[in-house]
């Protein structure tokens, strides 16, 4: 007989020996400290107590873990069985109870709340969102798994059922929503949601917390109220919105009752919701559903309804649908183009007329409307992105709606019956008035290629004028005018706009009104709009424009700017640029015949005479900006120099002049026609609309002081206000002395660089490998970034590179301090790291520089400050945390910032220790930045995401979710 191979049947089929090791499910109510309670430290997690639940605002969570019997005390204690050991299959209990714990783990862990507050030994139930939770918990008793509290000051019970009631109270004209949870008929003092499937109630019995959890379906609204943990207020001015938007949802999800003095709307009856999702490109998807009180939305099916109320409503739906569309009723579907418009304007209104039907539109909602009036043909000029070309925008105007020509041309060519406009209006193309358009196209076909977009060159001035005069309304720059209107609406009262970020390469501190002027210039440039800087003489128009050019260069502009000035002023531009913006490369054009195809410079300065002589050469080059200094030189639109300026190609044109109007309003029009083309109509229309009524009024109401003249003046002022800025000497007064800020990029020594690069590569590999799970690895990321920041300052701060490797910044700091002290000045030196201040202090003292110091360890703060004020020592070393605010040190007029600060507000506060009221000397600020290190990267990110760095690197260690993996990669790139 042949022997059988394989395992023995006994080994496979014999039952395993039962393991009766007692095991329980331990339940604990846990609480994390609030940010205020943490006092700048990490937010700790601890078991909740009767007192903490009443007094703390910290988050609550219901957590569970396996427990075993203590062999000595018979108490339930934490043993070897943990969730991690379950995952590894290392539990020493029978398979049935192991499966029970594994299933519970899956129910809660699928909500991705494992660990809750970062407690790896606990499984948080708050996010368990499965109805399987309750039968599973009840099955524990059958398996001999008790559900117990882990602490003597907590009790745990599993209730049968819960209910939720929302009481609406009146308070201060508004409402207060108070949510009450009852478990097995007993109201709870506190309650929190368990996903959307249950609640746990928290009651205080003496010093013991009784926690009872039970099933109850929770809608999103009720769950949100419970999760808030406190009454929710509705301000008086939002009561109507509450009853319209949230109240119906709450009545479906819970019992809503009114307190004394509150009147609630009647309960809902069965209704129909037509949900319309409006998508881009005029596409919509709709679905019709029943709205059942206390239940929610149920899709309307194709089959007939059995419920009488719903059957009657279904019949009304079908009749309204057929009358509006002529199509069979469909409870869901998709529409696009004109079909979407007709569905929106015909079917939806017909359904909305039914009492029990509500239409809800989400997405990019479109306001469609059918136009039934007679079309009216107009022709308008529109600027394009190419400054050398204009579009002849042919519109069909129907009931005030403008129709662009190219889509209309396509629709006519394709024989469509209707056309949908971009603004949602649609109309029939079968109209005799459109014959006029066909005639116009044929008459101008030899001048314009209509099929390719109706473009004409800007140099075809006569053709443009013909179309402009032909049009009922001239709009030479629709896009520009829209931006102008937006800028005008945002214009604040008073002189100037918001101040812009000062360019770092500007060597001269701007006065407040000059900063306002720079902000105004930058706002115009960002909108690709020009303007006239018409400040009084001597107020620094050149400085403000240089600041603008420096700002544009630092923002990434690579094309040169062109400055055109009188011959006598050209040299002054070179000198002023060297003084105020030395980083700008300035090229002076000193003769005719110059070409600019390959000019490698930041600013080209030429004269009006040379511009006129070499107009074609200047027009051939595309300039980033054009500045017309002393712009009264181009006030005559018929002059050659004006035409040469008009031919220049640039994103924006700015004019600088203290006399924008010398002889007539036409002077102003001529300048604005260069800087802001399209602000006014043609010269003929400007004379009719403004010059004649204002300057040559022939009737009483048009004379000076007359009502008509004042209306025209008001209209003119309103039109030019966003594009003309003028301040006089008697309205600007400097409250503070000027402040100069400069970034000093310090090159690391070869040894310092080698150590930094080695550590950078190591930390980069480590951090980049953690970015896929950034939320749980933020502390490690923070530690690595801090290490690199310290290493950029000094290798000794991180015990890298050996004791002889000095900080590269020390020499740069000492050199500048020597010059400052030699000239009798005094300086504040700030750093975030007291350990680096130790190194700086030792170095300065070793070189004979007297210092005083203020940091968190200073016990005699006033004495230290007084010592500096007495003038015994010229340098004051200050840590940011100890001296960033609350000091007035106008005795110093130099500030050194040794390391980049992630919070710009903190940096400005530090600088303001000396640059404040009472300071009578100019203040100079130096920022020392280690070149080629993380400091440069952080400065770049600081300007783009200023709030990000205060959240990541503040001393409290609170990490913001705004820090993305891409941000970390940028820091380490």
UniProtKB/TrEMBL annotation:
Keywords associated with the record: ATP-binding, Helicase, Hydrolase, Nucleotide-binding
Entries under SUPFAM superfamilies matching the protein: P-loop containing nucleoside triphosphate hydrolases
GO MF annotation terms: ATP binding; DNA translocase activity; helicase activity; hydrolase activity
Keyword Ligase: no
Membrane-traversing stretches: none
Helicase ATP-binding domain: residues covered: 522-678
PROSITE patterns: HELICASE_ATP_BIND_1 (PS51192), HELICASE_CTER (PS51194)
Coiled-coil segments on the chain, per record: none
Protein name: DEAD/DEAH box helicase
The organism's taxonomic lineage, starting at the top: Bacteria, Bacillati, Actinomycetota, Actinomycetes, Micrococcales
């Amino acid at each position: 007989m042949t022997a059988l191979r394989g395992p023995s049947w006994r080994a496979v089929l014999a039952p395993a020996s039962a393991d009766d090791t007692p095991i329980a499910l331990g339940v604990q109510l846990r609480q994390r400290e609030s940010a205020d309670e943490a006092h700048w430290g990490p937010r700790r997690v601890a078991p909740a107590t009767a007192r903490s639940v009443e007094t703390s605002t910290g988050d609550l969570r219901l957590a569970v873990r396996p427990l075993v019997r203590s062999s000595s005390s018979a108490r339930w204690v934490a043993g070897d069985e943990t969730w991690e050991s379950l995952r590894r299959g290392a539990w020493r209990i029978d398979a049935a109870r192991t499966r029970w714990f594994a299933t519970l783990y899956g129910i809660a862990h699928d909500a991705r709340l494992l660990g809750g507050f970062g407690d790896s030994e606990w499984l948080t139930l708050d996010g368990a969102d499965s109805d399987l939770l309750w039968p599973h918990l009840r099955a524990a008793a059958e398996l001999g798994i008790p559900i117990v509290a882990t602490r003597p000051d907590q009790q745990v019970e599993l209730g049968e059922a819960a209910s939720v009631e929302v009481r609406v109270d009146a308070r201060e004209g508004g409402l207060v929503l108070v949510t009450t949870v009852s478990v097995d008929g007993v109201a709870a003092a506190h309650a929190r949601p368990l996903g959307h499937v249950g609640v746990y109630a928290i009651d205080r019995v003496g010093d013991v917390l009784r926690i009872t959890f039970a099933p109850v379906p929770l809608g999103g609204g009720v769950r949100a109220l419970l999760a808030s943990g406190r009454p929710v207020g509705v301000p008086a001015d939002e009561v109507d919105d509450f009853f319209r938007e949230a109240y119906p949802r709450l009545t479906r999800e819970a019992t809503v009752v009114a307190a004394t003095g509150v009147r609630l709307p009647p309960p809902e009856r069965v209704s129909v919701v037509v949900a319309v999702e409006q998508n881009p490109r005029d596409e919509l998807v709709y679905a019709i559903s029943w709205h059942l009180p206390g239940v929610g939305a149920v899709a309307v099916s194709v089959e007939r309804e059995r419920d009488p109320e719903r059957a009657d409503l279904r019949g009304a739906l079908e009749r309204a649908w057929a009358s509006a569309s002529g199509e069979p009723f469909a409870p869901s579907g998709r529409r696009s183009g004109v079909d979407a418009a007709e569905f929106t304007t015909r079917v939806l209104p017909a359904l909305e007329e039914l009492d029990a039907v509500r239409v809800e539109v989400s997405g990019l909602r479109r306001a469609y409307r059918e136009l039934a009036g007679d079309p009216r043909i107009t022709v308008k000029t529109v600027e394009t992105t190419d400054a050398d070309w204009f579009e002849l925008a042919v519109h069909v105007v129907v009931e005030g709606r403008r129709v662009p020509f190219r889509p209309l041309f396509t629709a006519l060519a394709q024989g469509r019956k209707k056309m949908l406009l971009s603004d949602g209006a649609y109309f029939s193309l079968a109209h005799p008035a459109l014959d006029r358009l066909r005639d116009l196209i044929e008459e101008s076909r030899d001048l314009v290629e209509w099929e390719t977009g109706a473009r004409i060159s800007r140099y075809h001035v006569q053709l443009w004028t013909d179309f402009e005069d032909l049009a009922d309304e001239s709009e030479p720059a629709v896009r520009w005018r829209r931006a102008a209107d937006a800028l005008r609406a945002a214009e604040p009262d008073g002189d100037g706009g918001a101040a812009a970020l000062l360019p770092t390469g500007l060597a001269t501190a701007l006065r407040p009104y000059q900063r306002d002027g720079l902000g105004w210039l930058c706002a115009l440039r960002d909108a690709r709009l020009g303007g006239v800087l018409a400040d009084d003489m001597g107020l620094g128009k050149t400085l403000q424009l240089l600041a603008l050019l420096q700002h544009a260069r630092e923002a990434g502009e690579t094309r040169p700017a062109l400055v055109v000035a009188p011959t006598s002023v050209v040299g002054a531009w070179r000198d002023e640029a060297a003084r105020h913006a030395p980083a700008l490369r300035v090229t002076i054009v000193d003769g005719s015949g110059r070409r600019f195809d390959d000019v490698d410079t930041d600013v080209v300065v030429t004269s009006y005479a040379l511009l006129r002589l070499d107009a074609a050469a200047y027009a051939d080059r595309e300039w980033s900006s054009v500045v017309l200094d002393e712009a009264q030189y181009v006030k005559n639109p018929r002059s050659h120099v004006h035409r040469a300026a008009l031919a220049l190609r640039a994103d924006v044109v700015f004019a600088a002049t203290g006399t924008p109007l010398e002889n007539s309003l036409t002077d102003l029009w001529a300048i604005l026609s260069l800087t802001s083309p399209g602000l006014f109509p043609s010269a003929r229309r400007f004379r009719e609309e403004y010059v004649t009524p204002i300057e040559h009024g022939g009737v009483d109401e048009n004379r000076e002081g007359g009502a008509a003249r004042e209306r025209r003046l008001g209209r003119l002022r309103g039109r030019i206000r966003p594009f003309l800025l003028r301040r006089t000497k008697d309205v600007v007064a400097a409250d503070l002395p000027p402040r100069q800020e400069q970034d000093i990029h310090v090159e690391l020594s070869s040894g310092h660089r080698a150590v930094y690069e080695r550590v950078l590569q190591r930390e980069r590999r480590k951090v980049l490998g953690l970015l896929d799970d950034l939320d749980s690895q933020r502390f490690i990321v923070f530690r690595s970034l801090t290490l690199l920041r310290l290493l950029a300052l000094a290798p000794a701060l991180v015990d890298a590179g050996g004791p002889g490797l000095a900080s590269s910044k020390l020499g740069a700091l000492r050199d500048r301090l020597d010059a400052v002290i030699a000239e009798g000045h005094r300086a504040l030196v700030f750093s975030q790291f007291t350990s680096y201040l130790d190194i700086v202090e030792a170095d300065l003292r070793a070189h004979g520089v007297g210092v005083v110091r203020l940091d968190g360890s200073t016990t005699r703060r006033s004495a230290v400050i007084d010592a500096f004020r007495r003038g015994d020592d010229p340098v004051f070393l200050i840590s940011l945390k100890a001296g960033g605010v609350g000091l007035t040190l106008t005795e110093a007029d130099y500030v050194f910032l040794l390391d980049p600060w992630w919070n710009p507000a903190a940096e400005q506060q530090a600088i303001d220790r000396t640059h404040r009221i009472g300071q009578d000397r100019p203040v100079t600020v130096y920022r020392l930045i280690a070149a080629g290190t993380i400091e440069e990267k952080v400065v770049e990110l600081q300007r783009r995401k200023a709030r990000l760095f205060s959240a990541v690197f503040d001393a409290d260690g609170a990490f913001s979710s705004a820090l993305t993996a891409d941000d970390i990669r940028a820091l380490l790139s």
